[in-house]
Amino acid sequence: MSSIKDVAKAANVSTATVSRVLANHPHVRQEVRERVLAAVAQLEYRPNLIARNLRSQQSNTLGLIVSDIRNPFFTAVSRAVEDTAYAHGYNVLLCNTDENPEKELLYLQLMGDEQVAGVIFSPTLHTLNRFHELNLSFPTVLIDRSLRSGDVDAVLLDNVGAGYMLAKHLINQGYRRIGAIFGEASTTGRERQRGFEDALRDAGISMQPEYLRFVRPRTEAGHSTTLDLLRLSQPPEAIFTSNSLLTAGALQAIRERRLQMPEQIGLVGFDDTAWASLVQPAITVLAQPTDEIGRSATELVLQRVADPQRPTRKIILQGELIVRESSVEQRVRA
């Protein structure tokens, strides 16, 4: 196995120069950097990351803890985090919690053990409620889920405004009985519920409790809950869902019942997945700026690494309403 001394000898530089190149230090001449990297490749050198971390007390790894990697939103955000981290010379350690607080705690402990430089985290409501008890030893940026009180960097969607925009679209299309399915595990669902109900209230529409459901944010839950709503004596004229997995489940249930969209029922949801524009009719969605969320969160955590004393920042981003055929219905209602 090659050592750092072997690399230095092959590149005709000092071991310190090799270390600077491997750490992506900016003050290295390009010709020297290329010579060292060529020697690394030729000798198949693999640095001892554990030893490096012990010496520096900081790694070049960022942690990313997401609540459900199957959710296309988190897949897209993860890609943006990885791209941005790579551009800054960092690696990403990805963990998936399945909205399980026990797994969250396990992975947070792992991040401390690995001495990561910082963590980007989408916590459950349970963990948010005890966030300050965690006493995390590394810089942390929250994404998707908000901490009501506390001095923590965060990158969030304006969920209340997004929920309002999506519900208002349905109302403008003439829908009045609207079933709404929200995820129960995080603050996100509650905030989107607020926007949804605000839109109904402003339009003078009474929210019927039987049309409002909180479930686990999974495809199966979206499917079974939509079927329940469609069995009501007065079923909803449209379904509003708070994430793409719930939307997929709702679409499955609507197809099982052989209902035509948008004539017999409308459907809208969050996140512009690849399939949303491909199915017929295509689905109206509230698209989140996933690239900007991932990029901003990574830049925030790196800024915190560079300057631990800087003031915290909360970045609030806006979504985009993409209107498609699943909800566009030109009919007049009494």
UniProtKB/TrEMBL annotation:
Keywords: DNA-binding, Transcription, Transcription regulation. It comes from Herpetosiphon gulosus. It holds the Pfam family Peripla_BP_3. The keyword Transcription regulation applies. This is HTH-type transcriptional regulator DegA. The keyword Lipid metabolism does not apply. CDD domains: HTH_LacI (cd01392), PBP1_EndR-like (cd19977). Residues 2-56 form the HTH lacI-type domain. Gene3D superfamilies: 3.40.50.2300, lambda repressor-like DNA-binding domains. PROSITE patterns: HTH_LACI_1, HTH_LACI_2.
